[in-house]
Design goal:
By secondary structure, the protein is of the alpha/beta class. The chain is built from 17 helices and eleven strands. The chain is globular. The structure holds NADPH dihydro-nicotinamide-adenine-dinucleotide phosphate.
Amino acid sequence: MTRRVSIFGATGSIGQNTIDLIARDRDVYDVVALTGSSNIYQLAWDAKQLKADLAVTADPMRLDELRAALSGSGVEAAAGQDALIEAAQRPTDWVMSAIVGAAGLQPGICALEQGATLALANKESLVCAGSLMLSMAKQHGARLLPVDSEHSAVFQALAGEDMDAVERIIITASGGAFRDWPLEELAQATLAQASSHPNWDMGQRITIDSASMFNKALELIETREYFEVSPKKIEVLVHPESMIHAMVGFNDGALMAHVGPPDMRHAIGYALNWPTRRTLPVERLDLAAIGALTFRAPDEIRWPALRLAREVMERGGLAGAVFNAAKEMALDGFIDGNLGFTHMAEIVDEVLNASDPSHIDAQMTLDNVLAADHMARQAAKNIIEQKAG
Ligand code: NDP
């Protein structure tokens, strides 16, 4: 029997790795929808190769281009936010959520409403609306599986374990591009320097977020939301080799580590094949050749994003949505050349401090999450304009 699958963010780094795995086992999958945004050529190419029912670009201005690229293929073309939602409402067994940013939230929620298994690379969904996502999954008999390598590692280390026996969860961080830079040079870091990761080949936004540790900050909150553990039990450990992705410490002193090469096809393949394991085309580690793995404590002066994530977890409610929206705006500001590298954390800090508590303490509904997101984007925009001007 074939499995119906859809990939949201198919043209991105996670999306392409997912397609790589699906294309190897073509007969097993029936591809319902692929989505992208600006990369029309890739979207159309993959939709034709995989004989998808539907291809959607998030950009309504690109519909004619997508239609032309799909002409004669039998693949339906659509564009815009409503089309993304409609694609997520089509009956599917397994959905990859790999749109970047809060834009991934609504399609993910729609997929949960259909009772699908949602493989969640889009960590922003959990950061913005973790309890909502979990309750939607429960209500609709859907399943949420983590795809972030750290969270997939924790999920695997926890298989068959009692959460009451968990003393701590340690997620590792490579330290990104500026791990060893002198602190006083960080303010001058350029876009090109921040866009190059020492270990992982990823989309530009998450690569810059790795350099600033905003990625790890999001992952701290994601850990808290997905595994429903106290923030006090979650630690970050800098591990430059990116071989150990996470560890779970138990009350008998055991520390279960997940070790693997820095290749997202492991975590994607695990989520694709769960609850079974299938052979995956990832490198098998030769630990004798690697020789040594190193670790160091995270430095919250170098990476203020980690401190901000702790504050967000402390505040709870919709603070995650505010944090993520401010971070996305600050990142846009850095990418557009309007902000320096170290300004990003300052913007997020200011937006969090200035947020109206009524937004943060509001009930977690989709409308309130979107309102908090909107408010934080506006506040960040104002601060960025002041700084740039
Ligand atoms: P990419 O930037 O490579 O890809 C993002 C995808 O989202 C592309 O398909 C892009 O389309 C699409 N997209 C961009 N903007 C919008 C929008 N407004 N609406 C709808 N679609 C949009 O990102 P990654 O693959 O690196 O990351 C995707 C998600 O997975 C992120 O949440 C990231 O944090 C997470 N993640 C990524 C990892 C990695 O190794 N890359 C590891 C763990 C988690 P197009 O390219 O056509 O413009």
